[in-house]
Amino acid sequence: MAAIASPFLAGTALISVVNNGSKTEMRRTKASRQVAKDSLWYGPNRNRWLGPYSDGATPSYLTGEFPGDYGWDTAGLSADPETFKAYRELEVLHARFAMLGTLGCLFPELIAKTNGVEFGEAVWFKAGAQIFADEGLDYLGNPALVHAQSILAILGTQVVLMGLVEGFRVGGGPFGEGLDPIYPGGKYFDPLGLADDPDTFAELKVKEIKNGRLAMVSMFGYYIQAIATGEGPVQNWFDHLDNPTVNNGFAFATKFSP
Question: Whole-prediction pTM value?
């Protein structure tokens, strides 16, 4: 189903096109109440990257229709609608992976240092190599949970599971047909019904992309920290708290040479 819709259409009739095999029907449905036309996150009065000085710096094609649109595209990457659509999908998916990744990088090292849980190697950029050791890799330090010794088995499992999920997300299947590739929703992809209310859904989209962008920057920071210090982010944090004037980014930047 394709719908001629916009977050700015408040209480107006929307026209949707439903293709049922060889028959195409035009349906007119009542739109839900407006999703905050004058909100902080959508529409012409949304927050933008230069604040009150953004009027001449915001491209015309960035109208505030989509979550996380602050009117910044100095390189013109989103000028083409199809390219914009592809980039939006890529950004949201990478943001979700980054949020999971940052938590996955922090959690083992954090509980190893604070709770004394034995992981063998808890630092994120070293932990995976344990799978090549004779004793293998224990997830969360518990051999009864998942004990992995074959990288090929792990790779095959990930390819199958992720392939199925991505296939259903993009092409439909037993989880539903005609799903939105970015926000599929429904009882399988939104079992808690977090997106049932349109206003709540619109706000959650903004929160997701903002936290996701922060997580992507954080992952980049983890890489830089690992290269510069050889330590994990939790150890870097503890070292900084112990001696902030010595253990900080500026101190390492003056000593580091590629």
Answer: 0.76
- Three-point CA angle 158, 103, 228, nearest 5°: 100
What's the token pair of residue 82? 């199809």
Cβ(201)–Cβ(36) under 8 Å? Answer: no
Mean pLDDT per 10-residue segment, the chain (258 residues)? 38 39 39 53 89 86 91 91 92 95 92 82 87 81 79 91 84 73 84 91 94 96 90 92 88 68
Burial code (b: 16+ CB inside 10 Å, e: under 16) for 97-108 equals: ebbebbeebbeb
Q: How far is CA 160 from the centre of its chain?
A: 21
Asked if residue 8 lies in contact with residue 37, where contact means CB atoms within 8 angstroms, the answer is: yes
Which helix (H) or strand (E) element contains residue 2? strand 2-4
CA distance 201 to 210: 14
Q: What b-and-e string marks burial along 124-161, b requiring 16 or more CB atoms within 10 Å of the CB?
A: bbebeebeeeeeebbeeeeeeeeeeeeeeeeeeeeeee
Give the chain's length.
258
Task: Return the bridge partners of 138, or none.
Answer: 147
Task: Specify the pairing of strand 2-4 against strand 13-20.
Answer: antiparallel
Count CB atoms within 10 A of the CB of residue 90. 11
Euclidean distance between CA atoms 180 and 186, whole angstroms: 10
